[in-house]
Design a protein that fits this description.
alpha+beta
Length: 191
């Protein structure tokens, strides 16, 4: 069973791009039949629907979570106008239409628990997130996952796959359990 251990995302996609991606009937991983997309105020939730009928409908399947914000995007000409010093009548500036187009953006930002939630179908939903990352013009997705008992690093920057390596910087300390506190990282009751 494949699993995602570490994940960090700063991805930003136009909300329209996210909806278009799923409306174009993408090739979803085999364990995912379809996805349900729900928007609650300024939160977008993309939930996996399993192909496995043995998974109870009450079992929370993996979901991707993004915050939705509005931002202005500018054409190159508008960007040049914005960067030029404005010398003129202040009344004229107040009456001008603001430059750029106001769009909604889905921001998949944070670590694993923030962006990729629940453990059932977690890895297949991670694969969906990677495909969305390849559609993004802005942001980075880095992750460490286990696939067939091998660790694999993933790094996608501004929509392009980049080389990634795994580096062990600190080994487990042998005296961590002697501190008398609860070891949250190796607690068998937390998955």
């Amino acid at each position: 069973m494949s699993q995602v251990y570490r994940l960090h995302s700063t991805l930003e996609l136009p909300l329209e791009t996210v909806y278009d991606y799923f409306e174009d009937d993408p090739d979803l991983p085999g364990a995912i039949d379809s996805v349900d997309i729900t928007r609650r105020n300024n939160t977008l939730i993309i939930s996996a629907v399993s192909t496995d009928e043995s998974i109870s409908k009450y079992t929370p399947t993996a979901q991707l979570k993004a915050s939705v914000t509005e931002t202005r995007v500018f054409t190159e000409e508008e960007e040049e106008l914005r960067n030029q010093p404005q010398w003129g009548n202040e009344e004229e500036e107040e009456n001008e239409e603001p430059l750029g187009e106001l769009i909604e953006v889905a921001a998949f930002k944070g670590d694993r628990e923030t962006v990729l939630q629940n453990s059932a179908l977690q890895y297949p939903m991670f694969e969906v997130l990677c495909e969305l990352a390849r559609e993004a013009d802005k942001g980075t997705l880095t992750a460490i996952a286990e696939i067939d008992e091998e660790l694999e690093a993933t790094r996608i920057v501004d929509g392009e796959d980049r080389p990634a390596t795994i580096e062990v910087v600190e080994g487990p300390s042998s005296d961590s359990s002697s501190s008398g506190g609860v070891d949250w990282r190796d607690n068998k009751f937390i998955s």
